[in-house]
Automatic annotation (TrEMBL):
Pfam families per UniProt: A_deaminase
EC assignment: 3.5.4.2
Location of the active site: E194 (proton donor)
Binding site for Zn(2+): H11, H13, H191, D272
Record-annotated Adenosine deaminase domain positions: 6-321
Protein name: Adenine deaminase
Lineage: Bacteria, Bacillati, Actinomycetota, Actinomycetes, Pseudonocardiales
Reactions that this protein is recorded to catalyse: adenine + H2O + H(+) = hypoxanthine + NH4(+)
């Protein structure tokens, strides 16, 4: 059992924190008829075959998010849960395109999420940053347009990321939006090697210039890539309960986290979409420590890696360590 609670959450999608109770509450508020009988019926659908199967429900449930208040309510609920789990710094992903395609204005998304972060996080003792992710199964030119709109609106962004359906959507196509983000002084991360091959991790580093890899568990398939990730101390934000629920790994007891850690990789533990995968970052830490028999030293290293991987000042890092 861990005695130090996790301090830093670097891989969590705000839309993946939308709990069934809040889905039904927002649906009622917005007069939206849900295609589920009740919360139990909704929860019964949380048995996923793969990433695509999950993403279909994840995007469908976003229908209840219409106004800035809805996005703020979701973000506030997440912050409260994160604080209760010991989180003191969070870098939160948001998927603007998933809302724009439904006709929700960009301002509702940004004002709602960023407003709640600014208003609520300080009182909970949490520092935050917002990372806008682009959907890799939509056109790269659309990502460029959306980033330009975010920059024009002065959205308070820490960085950009790349997510959604991975296989068949290699990162290289998104070079332009990542170059634009670099020019704008934004941090850059990308999902790679979750369901997709190790080659996508290499491509995300070489073509997109990312500073962190989200997931990256398939990196182990390529020993040369592993050597490079160790040598360059590239952070990998691993989400064990997500990997089991999306069948990227058959069982938590077979999860590659321990192998990755002992091979010298800068892995840390995070939650991905906690409302869907059975646990927040503290739950992930407890579950993986028990299933893999992690030592106190292993757990301390995981916690240290998360702080080292965070996009924070040296002063804040020292407080978090
Ligand atoms: N969007 C939300 N969760 C995701 C995941 N696990 N992989 C890719 N895209 C996502
Ligand atoms: Zn993710």
């Amino acid at each position: 059992m861990i005695d130090t609670p996790p301090a830093v959450e670097l891989h969590v999608h705000v839309e993946g924190t939308l709990e069934p109770e809040l889905i039904t509450e927002l649906a009622a508020r917005n007069g939206i008829a849900l295609p589920y009988r009740d919360i139990e019926d909704l929860r019964a659908r949380y048995a996923f075959h793969d990433l695509a199967d999950f993403l279909a429900l994840y995007y469908a449930n976003m229908a209840v998010l219409r106004t800035a208040d809805d996005f703020a309510a979701m973000t506030r609920a997440y912050l409260r849960r994160a604080a209760a789990g010991g989180v003191r710094h969070v870098e939160l992903f948001v998927d603007p395109q998933a809302h724009l395609v439904r006709g929700v204005p960009l301002a509702a998304v940004v004002d709602g999420v960023a407003g709640a972060l600014a208003d609520d996080a300080p009182g909970l003792g949490i520092t935050t940053g917002l990372i806008a992710c682009f959907l890799r199964d939509r056109p790269p030119a659309e990502a460029v347009d959306v980033l330009r709109a975010l920059l024009a609106a002065d959205a308070p962004l820490l960085g950009i990321g790349l997510d959604s359906a991975e296989v068949g959507h290699p990162p290289g196509g998104f070079a332009e939006v990542f170059a634009l983000a670099a020019e704008a002084g934004l941090h850059r991360v990308a999902h790679a090697g979750e369901e997709g091959p190790a080659a996508y991790v290499t491509e995300a580093l070489d073509v997109l210039g990312v500073e962190r890899i989200d997931h990256g568990i398939r990196s182990l398939d390529d020993p040369e890539l592993v050597d490079r990730l160790v040598r360059d101390a590239v952070p990998l934000t691993v989400c064990p309960l997500s990997n089991v629920r999306l069948r990227c790994t058959p069982d938590l007891r077979d999860h590659p986290l321990a192998t990755m850690l002992h091979r010298g990789l800068r892995v840390s533990v995070h939650s991905d979409d906690p409302a869907y995968f059975g646990g927040y970052v503290d739950d992930n830490h407890r579950a993986v420590a028990a299933a893999l028999g992690l030592t106190r030293d292993d757990q301390a290293r995981l916690a240290h890696h998360a702080v080292d991987a965070a996009f924070v000042s040296a002063e804040r890092a020292a407080e978090l360590h």
